[in-house]
Specification:
This protein has about 60 residues and is mainly alpha-helical. The chain has one domain. The chain is built from three helices and two strands, in the order H-H-H-E-E. Strands 1-2 form a two-stranded antiparallel ribbon. The chain is globular, with a radius of gyration of 11 Å. The protein starts with 5 loop residues before the first helix and ends with a strand.
């Protein structure tokens, strides 16, 4: 049986996002988690639906708490 680490990853992402002080790209967060940026987008997309994070497009955009 494999271990589900999604909750730990979400908490890890939120802590780092709070420390950035601005928006963080999926690529940056993916590098921190040692995972693909697409995985980050899927994870944070669910958090966005829940109203826990926001996202901005374009230069200087990214994810923010």
């Amino acid at each position: 049986m494999s271990r589900d680490s999604r909750l730990a990853r979400v908490v890890h992402v939120l802590v780092h996002m709070d420390n950035f002080g601005g928006a963080a790209s999926s690529e940056t967060i993916g590098a921190l988690l040692d995972t693909n940026p697409v995985v980050v987008r899927r994870l944070l997309g669910r958090l966005k639906e829940a109203g826990l994070v926001q996202s901005d497009r374009g230069p200087g955009g990214g994810w923010r708490p």
